Amino acid sequence: MCSIPSSIGNFCNLQYLDLSYNNLNGSLLDIINGTENCNSKSPLPNLRELSLGSNQLMGKFPNWLGELKNLEKLSLYNNQLQGSIPNLIGNLSDLSSLDFSSNKLSGTLTEQHFWKLSKLDFLDIGSNSFRLDVSSNWTPPFQLRTLSMGSCHIGPAFPTWLQSQKNFEYLDLSNTSISSSIPNWFWNISSYMEYLILSHNQLQGQLPNSNIGEFLPNLLFLSLSGNQIVGTIPDSIGHLSSIEVIDFSSNNLIGAIPSTINNCSSLIVLDLGNNNLFGMIPKSLGSLQLLKSLHLNYNKLSGELPSSLRNLTGLDVLDLSYNNLSGQIPAWIGTAFSNLVILNLRSNMFSGRLPSLLSNLSSLHVLDLAQNNLMGEIPVSLVELKAMAQDHNMSISSLYQNGSSYLYEERLIVITKGLSLEYNRALSLVVSIDLSDNNLSGEFPKGITKLFGLVFLNLSMNHIIGRIPENISMLRQLSSLDLSSNKLFGSIPSSMSSLSFLGYLNLSNNNFSEKIPFIGQMSTFKESAFAGNPNLCGTPLVIKCQDEGTDKNQSDVEDKIDGGFVDQWFYLSIGLGFAVGMLVPYFVLAMRRSWCDAYFDLVDKIVKWLLFRRRATYTRNHAQRK
What is the dihedral of CA 155, 161, 167, 168, to 10 degrees? Predict the structure, then answer.
C-alpha cells in the first residue's frame, strides 16, 4: 500500500490520470505540492479525466478539484473520503461524469453545487450521507442519463425536479427517506429507462393502472421493495416485454397474481414475497422459461402447485414458504429443477410422503420443508444431495451473471438456533436441511452423516426413532443440530464432542439414556439441551449417574485406607526417631570409659562457663542501677 506521489503535481500538461483499483492511501491534498512549476495555481491544470476509484484514499475533499476548469470526468468512488463537498465543484462547466459513491462523505448539497454542470449526464453520489436541499421549483441545468442517490436524504416529498429529466436510463433513489406517493407523471418520465430502483423508502399509494409497458418499453429492472404500496398488481405489468427483474416484495399488495405476467418472457427474477396476495399460483407462470428465482413467500396463496411450473427448468431458487398451499409435494420437483439451489416450502399445508426423487437435486444447498403435514420415513436417497456433501460450496451471489439480474440480491430467511435469521451476502454459508414440525417417522437417517457440508440440521418435532449414529462427527461443518421432541433412544455418541463448530444443540424430549459425554464441545451446552430425557444423567443435569456415586464411595474408601496407612507410618517414624536419638549416644559412651569421661568433662566446662557469664552480667547491671 502506498500513497499518490506529491511530485505528480509537476505534470502540468497531464490530461488523463487513472489510478483506480490499486491500494493507494493518503490524502488528495498531498498532490498540491509541486504546483510552483506550473503557470496555474492549481495542480494538474490541464487534467480532463481523474479516476482514483476503489482505493483507500482518506481525508477531506480538496478544494483544488473545483479549480480544474477542463475536467470532464471525476471518479472517486469506493474510498474513505470524509467531510462535505465544496461549492466550487459547481464551477466545472465541462464535467460530464461525477462519481463520489461509496465513501463517508456528508453535508448538504444545494443548487450551487450543480449550477454550471450543464454537460453532466452521469451522477453517482450513492452510499454516502448527503442531504439534498433544493427548492421545489428547481430546474437542473443538466439532462442525466444515470442518477444514483441511494442512501442519501432526499425526502420526505417526492423530488419534483426529476420531472425535467427526459433521458434517464438508470435511476436509483433507494433508501432516500421518501414517504409520499409516486406521482402519475413519474411513470412517463423517460422512454429510455432501463433500471428503476425505488426500494426501501416509505412510498405510498398504488401502482398505476395505465399501460406501464407503453411508457417504459425498455425497462429491464424494476424494484419497489420495502415500501407501503397498496392495491393490486395491474394487468398492464404484462406489457413490460423486456423486463428481467420484478421486485415488489415487502409491500401491502393484495389480490391475485395477474396471469398476464406470462408475457414477461425475459423475466429472470420475480419477487412478490411479503405481501397479502391470495388465490392460486397462476398456471401461466410456467411460461417464464428463463426464470431463475421465484419468491412468493409470506402471502396467502392457496391450492396445489400447478404442474406447469415443471417447465421452469432453469430455476435456482423456489421460495413458496408461509402460504396456505396444499396437496402433495410433486415428484417432478426432483426431475425438473436440476439446478435448484434453494427449495423452501416451509409453513404450508403440504401432506403425504417426501418424494425420493428430491435426491436428484444435485445443486441443492437449502431444503426447508418444515411446518407441514408430511408423513412417512425420510427417504434413504436423501444422502445423494451432492452439493451438501461438499465442504466448499458455490457463492449464491454468483447465480445471476447475465443481464440486469446481477443487481438483485438473493436473500433467505433461515430458522436456526431458535432465531429467525436473514441471509443475503452470506447466503453461500448456508447449507441446511429443515424437516421439523411434521409427522415424519421411521429410523434416524444414518446416511445423512455423509452430507459433510451440512451447517444446519433440524429434524425436531417428528416421530423419528432409533439412535444417533456414532459417525455423526463426520459432519464437521455442523453449526446447529436440533433433534428435540422425537422418540430417539440410546446413548448420546461421545464423538459429538469433536464437533468444534457446533454452537446450538437441542436433544430435549426424547428417550436418550446413560451418561452425557460432557467433554469437548459438548461441555458448552446447558441443561436445557438435554431436558426431558428421564433416563439421561450426568453433567449438566441435576441427576447423577449411578457409576458416579460408586466411584465417589470407592474414592472415599481408598482415601481412608491411604490416610490410615500414612498415619501409621507417621507415628512409627516418630517412635523410631526418638529411640535412635536416645539409645545411640548411650551405646557409644558405654563402649569406652575414656570417651565417657571426656564427654562429661566437656559438659561440666560448658555449664561452669554459662554460670560465670550469668554472674558477670548480673553484677554489671546491678552496679549501673546504683
Answer: 0
Contacts with 519 (C-beta within 8 Å, 6 or more apart), sequence order:
494, 497
Task: Provide the residue count of the chain.
Answer: 626
Which is nearest to 143 in space by CA: 171, 173, 122? 122
From 321, 253, 238, 252, select the one nearest 285 (Cα to Cα): 238
Strand partners, 480: 456, 504
User: Which triple of cell numbers denotes residue 495?
Assistant: 464423538
- pLDDT number for residue 396: 55
pLDDT at 557: 41
* 3-class DSSP state of 480: strand
pTM of the model: 0.85
CA angle 413, 222, 428 (to 5 degrees): 30
Cβ pair 245, 266 in contact under 8 A: no
Q: Which pLDDT score, from 0 to 100, does residue 569 have?
A: 55
**CA–CA gap between residue 419 and residue 57 (Å, rounded):** 39
Distances, alpha carbon 412 to alpha carbons 164, 317, 351, 377, 515, in Å? 39, 10, 23, 27, 39
How many contiguous H segments (helices) and E segments (strands) does the chain have? 4, 36
Nearest to 252 by CA among 274, 223, 234, 271: 274
User: What pLDDT is stored for residue 626 in this prediction?
Assistant: 45
Is residue 276 within 8 Å of 299, Cβ to Cβ? yes
Buried b (16+ CB within 10 A) or exposed e, 113-141: bbebbeebbbbbbbbbebebebeeeeebe
Q: Give a three-class secondary structure readout of 15-27.
A: CEEECCCCCCECE
The Cα 77–Cα 57 span in angstroms is: 10
Q: What are 278's strand-pairing partners?
A: 300
Other C-beta atoms within 10 Å of 167: how many? 15
- The confidence score (pLDDT) of residue 418 equals 75
What amino acid is encoded at 205 in this protein?
G
Measured distance CA(611)–CA(618) in Å, rounded: 11
The closest of 177, 240, 179 to 208, measured between CA atoms, is 240
- Residue 11, Cβ density class (10 Å: 0-12 exposed, 13-18 middle, ≥19 buried): middle
Query: Which residues lie below 8 Å from residue 441, measured CB to CB, with a gap of 6+?
Result: 375, 376, 377, 462, 463, 464, 465
CA distance 254 to 158: 24
Kindly report, residue by residue over 179-229, the tens digit of the pLDDT.
999 999 999 999 999 999 999 999 999 998 878 888 999 999 999 999 999
Please calculate the CA angle 453-455-457 and round it to the nearest 5 degrees.
110
- Using alpha carbons only, give the angle 228, 416, 301 rounded to the nearest 5 degrees: 45
- Is 192 strand, coil or helix? coil
pLDDT score recorded for residue 566: 45
**Residue 524 φ/ψ, nearest 5 degrees:** -90, -5
Provide the 10 A C-beta neighbour count for residue 148: 22
Residue type, 479: S
Which positions of the chain have pLDDT values less than 50?
398, 550-566, 580, 584, 618, 623-626
